[in-house]
Structures are given as structure tokens and as C-alpha cells.
Amino acid sequence: MTTDLKTLAGTLNAEFPALSPLDRLKRLREAVSGRLVFTTSLGIEDQMITHLIFSNAIKIEVVTLDTGRLFPESYEVWRRTEETYGKRIHAKYPQAEALENLIEDQGIDGFYHAKEFRLNCCGVRKIEPLGRALAGANGWVTGLRADQSANRHDMDFAGYDSVRGLIKANPIFDWSREDVAAFTKENGVPVNILHDKGFLSIGCAPCTRALEPGEPERAGRWWWEDDTKRECGLHVPGASEGTPSLVRA
Questions:
Q1: DSSP string for residues in 62-92
Q2: pLDDT tens per residue, range 193-208
Q3: Considering the entire predicted model, what is its pTM?
Q4: Which of 121, 204, 207, 232 is catalytic?
């Protein structure tokens, strides 16, 4: 199976540039047997993909990772999306005991004090739930775009995730933010109102701020850290799904 998925990932990566995002999703569903999971952050890119999946009845599960620290506006767009399409966005939550231990160990907002603490928080609230969301799946769909950050520029349209043992597909990898915004407006896709307030990349409320003029798209994420390649670990190869004080990316 591993060899087959690796080969298939290479085939899809070569085919995707000539296809539209919708046709990429359809081709992925046609090519990959078993479960396909799309994880949405409820941001504008992911809302576009959710629209394509729901509007075309593509058999891809739509899942969000509810960290417990999302903006109220994110829950609002989650509700509006379910009402618009009559479909359910499934949720994965942090494990209660792990979350309790995390807070006991480093405090409610300990992530502001050390990058290690921030990665611990992301590990408990996002990485471990992602592992459960993708358990048993053969394919993972994301809303990554090449121009979001330097770290994402060198990724592929489709590749084999050797850690999780599945194909990871990025159907709007070559789209710009302007392209995505035009699509959502034209198709009446529910969009998080925070985008109009300078929040181009939206994560947990304590870890996301509005951008200053001229800042790159992801500058508002974990802005207090010096590292320019700021990631939670979801899209970092080999990120651990361990316990607090053991999580690294």
C-alpha cells in the first residue's frame, strides 16, 4: 500500500497543474480508495474548498480542529456554513486529560513565555486531534497555498506523507489570495468577517493578530516569536503528537 500511495501521489502531483481545483478534488476522490479527510481552519481558502466539496457532493469528510481557543467569529462562520450547505463539519477536540495537564504545567497562556510551551499547546490542541482525524484515512486535503509563506512555497500539489502514511493533496496550491477571494464572493461562500479586519490568516484567538500594512500574510500568527517560519506543526514533516514538554516541530 505504501508503494502504491507514493506512486499515486507522484501521478497526481504531475496531473494537478492542468486541472481546476474542483477537478483536482474529483480526481483525488476517483484515484484514492478509502477515506479522504479535509481539515478546515474555517479561513477563506478552506471555505472555498468546503464549498467545492459540499456543492458537488464529493465524498470527502470535512473536519475542523476545535482547539477551544478559537475566535467567536470562527464559530459563527462554522454555523453559517452548516446552515448554507445543510452539511455537518465534524469536530475533533483536545483530549481532556492532556489539556488539563498542559494547563497545570504551564498555565492558561504559557505559550507567550517560550516557544517550547507554544509548541506544547499546539501539540495538545491541534497535532494530537489531527492524528485522530486522519486515523485510517488514505488521503488528506488541505487549503495550503504556495504564496502563503516561504515554508509552504516548496511543497507540492500532492505528495506522500510518510509519517501519517497517506497522500496529502493541496488543491488550491497555485491560487493567489485574490483568486480565492474573488471565487468566494462570486459564489456566495460564507467567509469569516475577521478577514475584513486585517486577519488574513486566522488561528486561535490568543495567537493571532491583525496585520500591519505591508506585512506578509502569516505575520499575525505567533507574532511574538522571532522565527520567520511560524507553524503549529500540522504541516511540518515529523511533528510529534506527544505530550506536554515532549512536543517539538
A1: EEEE--S-B-HHHHHHHHHHHHHHT---EEE
A2: 999 999 999 999 999 9
A3: 0.89
A4: 232
